[in-house]
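hey all, quick one before standup. I had two proteins in the batch that finished overnight and I want to keep them in one place so we stop losing track of which output belongs to which input. First protein below, input sequence then structure tokens straight from the run.
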Amino acid sequence: MNFFAVLLLVFSILFAAPDAFAADKKGKAASKSEDPIVVMETTKGPIKMVIYKSEAPITANNFLGLVNRGFYNGLTFHRYEKGFCIQGGDPQGTGQGGSDKTIPLEKSPNLKHDSAGVLAMARTSDPNSASSQFYFTLDAASFLDNPPGYAAFGKVTEGLENVMKLRKGDKMTKVYVQGAEPKAKGK
């Protein structure tokens, strides 16, 4: 094969192949290889979730930084709303606490509250007040996408049945990035 034939073959593979990492036909985010999987061991069983670092880098990096510090280990879920959400991530366990920083609202058009198992950041009425509290949706909640909205940044990939069993007072025993050693509790 001559040089030009090889070059043509390489370009046709690179540019003619569909982008496997683009949004799917329904506009939902497709996971990219750099999107990590977080494992959350809870009193109701394990939950695995993809963190869409490629779609929501600020929000994902905030959450992953807290995971890597062991921040969530031992915290409780402090809010349960049947058919809506289960919320955790408050070190006080009251819904009033957070980490040592807040982040700006970051919304991606490909990340919607369109089903059970969406992972998103909780916040106050200030759109730029998200800190450490997060929630899992228990059903579609598209009204959360209305302006200003809430930052969805992940999706349950395994253990949705465990998410659905969580209630106020249940605990996150260990939360870690898959393939990384779980950290001890640290705020």
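OK second protein, same deal, sequence then tokens:
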Amino acid sequence: MKWYQKTAAILLLLLVFFPALGMSGCKTSAKITTTEITQKTTQSTAMQSENTAEATPQTAEKAEATIAAETTSPESSAAATIKATTAVTAATTKATAAATKETAKATTAAATTAAKETVKATTAATAAAAKETTKATTAAPAATTKETTAATAAATTQAPPADSGSGEVYITETGKKYHNDGCRYLDESKIAISKADAITQGYTACKVCNP
């Protein structure tokens, strides 16, 4: 209990027990005592106010010191460090995500452009190859037809008329060939026969005289 609280308690006790001392001959004294008590109470209240006023700056200083101590304490520093680290990590993650997005966008655009150019080049090459193939295919039958016509004309001009098989040829007694007159294989024997009969009987043309 504070001293001013004790003083107030004593004064209250005096006020309570003062009538027991006798009120008849002590009115003046009681009046003086009451006045003194009032003055003392006023003084106690003033001193209490002064003590409160003196304690208020001390309390403010103590609060400021406590705040400063909490601010500079290891726990506060660790919390601030964690907070700063979290902020840096979040910013780094955000920047990385943005960079990844831009990279993916650029890669997709490059791949699309490359695919488009590839398709364009492939289409052009296919069209050129098809054109050359068509040209070669068109030219080849024309050349073949021309060559065939020339060969046919040459064969028709150079080849002798086909033998109808009605001409006369000659065979020998021992051979299996038929010959033209004057062939060297007819020196020993010479038998006249139609070409058709010779072919029917199984004779074949001589390769020397070519009947």
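Flagging for whoever picks this up: The longest helix spans residues 74-158. The longest strand covers residues 168-171.
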